[in-house]
């Protein structure tokens, strides 16, 4: 199980004053790199931020345009042309794409980690960029500019800072999620820091489960519960991961707690079926505990 020091560090980084994401993202990276020192990577972001600021100044001096759109274009040229950041399409499922230290070293990542780099560099350069917790593909937005979709400039850092129209967002939603989620402008609202960190953790948990790396997946679930203590699904998943790892005591504790709390919620038919399956797990675990006594 993940150490208390790591959960405490993530909670502290998520709740510290301001909007910074880098420190929390580097705490998450300690799942893969337990002895990671955040200092050099924060310094890299500082240097990138200063470079981006200078790029914005040069562009505005040449064009006499200080609009948000002009700043975004300067930032895009600096990050993607000059610094070589790009989406990792070849090895999208590589866990290193979820670790900010690796993204900064290798200049490649997935939508959410490239978005964190984009937001952190922009903030250091004096430009406010917010995260957008868009289903299936994390985006960012810059207030100002054309308000045709009611959210300012919508930017896709995974695709070299492409500026998206409402039509583009609708197509993106269909491609990644399908018809079960209807497009709404509310999908383009700014994400809170906790939402961004939670999304990073959920991505990493999904990867570890897919790889059958259950100890790491349970570590991520510990962190998810540290930043979102009321997340019932994470309590359930931590119990199921403990069950797969043959940690009878932890599995029984979490799954019994989940069943108790889930009884207070309205359940649809699928949830009722799942509830019954988990109850069967609990009965099996109780028999195993009884056999040991």
Provide a descriptive summary of the structure in words.
The chain is α+β, with helices and mostly antiparallel strands. It folds into two domains: 4-188, no CATH class; 230-292, no CATH class. It is 60% helix and 6% strand. It contains twelve helices and six strands. Strands 3-4-5-6 form a four-stranded antiparallel beta sheet. Strands 1-2 form a two-stranded parallel sheet. α1 packs antiparallel against α2 (22-29). The longest helix has 25 residues, at 39-63. The protein is elongated. It starts with a helix and ends with a helix. The model has no long low-confidence stretch (mean pLDDT 92).
Layout of helices and strands, plus pairs?
Layout: H1 4-15, H2 22-29, H3 39-63, H4 68-82, E1 86-87, H5 100-106, E2 108-109, H6 111-125, E3 130-132, E4 139-142, E5 153-156, E6 162-164, H7 166-176, H8 193-210, H9 214-227, H10 232-244, H11 248-262, H12 269-292
Parallel strand pairs: 1-2
Antiparallel strand pairs: 3-4, 4-5, 5-6
